[in-house]
Amino acid sequence: MSCNEDYCTLVQGIRSVNFSGNSIPCKLLLTGDTAFPVLASPGKHVLIAASKYGKGRMVVMSHEAFFNLPQFMDFLKNAISWLKPSSEAVIGINNNLRNLEQTLLASGHTVEQISGLKKDVGVLVTNGYRDSQAKEIVTFIKEGGGVLIGAQAWHWAQTHKDDNVLCNFPGNKITSVAGIYFTGQCGEGGNFDVCEKIPWCPFYKDVRFSGDLKHLTKGVSNMDISGQSVPSELLLHGPLTFPIGLTNSNQCFFAGAYYGRGRVVVGTHEGYLSKPQLKTFLLNAISWLDKGRNGKIGVAKQLANFASILQTEDLQCVLSDIIPEVSVYCCTSYSDGEAEKVHQFVAEGGGLLIAGHAWYWSYSHPNVLSQYPGNKILNKLGISILERTATQGIYPVLDPQAEAITYHFPRAVCQLISDLKSGAELKPPLNTWLSKLRQDVSTFMRLPESPLISALQEELVHLVHGCCMPNVSKQCPAKNCSKEAFMMCLAQEVCRLDKLQDPDCESAQCNPPVTIQIDATNPGDDAWRSTGLYLPPRKTAILVFPASAVGKGLQVQVGCHSDDLSGAKEFCRAPVVVHRKGVDDEKVSISSVWGGLLYVIVKAKSQLGNIQISVQGVELAPLFIKGKINRSSWVQKVRKYPSPWAELITENIILTVPSDAIRSLEDPDTLMSQWDKIMEAIADLAAVSKKFPRPERFVTDVQISVGR
User: Fold this and answer.
1) How many percent of the chain have pLDDT more than 70?
2) What average pLDDT score do residues 423-434 get?
3) Where is the Peptidase M60 domain positioned along the sequence (predicted)?
4) What mean pLDDT do residues 553-566 have?
């Protein structure tokens, strides 16, 4: 069952929940890839959440008093049904919850009064103020049990001012393994509507990592990543992550995180673990991960040199795979064979030091974000290793007191969303981070699905739907570090996710399709096949391929301006305007915020012959093919087609030009004959065959990536 299905089960039949009254809830914080908000207030405070851990499930409520209030009974019945591992499972409940007990009995559940976790119960209903059975309850969930737990931590935080609520509040020693934390902040009260879909909640801003950073950088004057080891860059996307090392352009190369009851430090090259200039920092990292336990350090066998360094510092160290006896485990990011064990180890209190880069792996593998071994471990923890490299150098340590002005993607993107929605002026340092945010948002939109990631992605999609695209041109360019550039980049990623709304899509499917024929035999390199069709901006085209063409490497492409301008100082057009999609099913839908000519990309060495494709949702584009389109047809009809782009094709060259340039063209045949002579002369000069393996394409563009 997916998280969306779980959510629908939990809120079935419930339109609103009333949090009014004397019981003040606390905000809940969510992390990981299984936790999701069930109810959030208008102020985006999470007040009820759910998650899974191991084989079991958990529902967390932001005040234990809600267990006995009449307005929560319908939800609690849904929650208990969802938590039960089987229909016969016994519900263990405290004897002071008479209302809940009677409600469950009346609904046909078997209920037993207990004072703590007891053998043979399937669901435990408890509060979060005691941790004497925390270890046993975590094991209970892991083995398939269900837990309904309620508490508020704001009062505890007021009486434990020097304590870390996330780590030390009793209930968090249970709930955190599943990615849910009680916080010391009061939540909103009122009668709140239930959302149709999992609600999005912005990044929780009240966690401070200054103490952690102070511990990690004690005695360290700089972070030296100069030398032969080339690091990857990290993307931090979890709410409990924080940068430890940043380049001058805000590329992260060392990061830390809390996950469950444990901690994580990530480095972007394993060579750094043996680098003398980083020794003090790494010893600090081991100390921070160990949390004062003076436990044994487990080190993967590939890091024997690092183990020797630790042993010279009189640290207990063992070369091994991950084992329960160690308090900290050190490994590289090049294997995911123990990913599940690592997740469990960290969630239940262990410390993880992991290092490695992904740029070399990306040369021979696709999908670094989802398939790179290290990311199969780290994505869940809120950090991803990227194929991009970080700039080598010697960088000053981060100021622990400067969190508010230190670049951190989750905090920055949520602030940007808020400011763009409200129309507020972007202020420093946010407005100085826009180029970096544009790059990181593009990466974030490609992360594998999880409830929290998907919810933020959806919020970014809504941002595109609710905003007009910037009107960028040669006369009115956009600066690289501008909100206009950010929105153009985001819009392209929304297209890639197939999230662009086209209100006319369904009605377009009612119109008669256009049938085209494509030559899908291609002895040379990958080749674009022109279709003579144009997809208007913010519209969706639907193409139907024969079954024989599915999964054969064909791609559909919208747009012909393939230069990526992302590195330019200013943009006369959106930096990326081409969108491609593989033909993995007979029916392919593709959208574009910019619009563009429609192509089919035929993979090198394809032998599929001529194929017929049915296309809906497009317009005809002026297309002249020498020898196939006669002058009369061109003058009377073809050159008048509405597309803003036109193509002129002969044997060895294809010209793509604005349609305004060909509206008055009377004799395209003579023009293209001249181009034939030019291409023959080029072939003679190069001493190659007069017929090129595929036609050369010339596309007029307002701006190109290299040159002028």
Assistant:
1) 98
2) 94
3) 526-708
4) 96
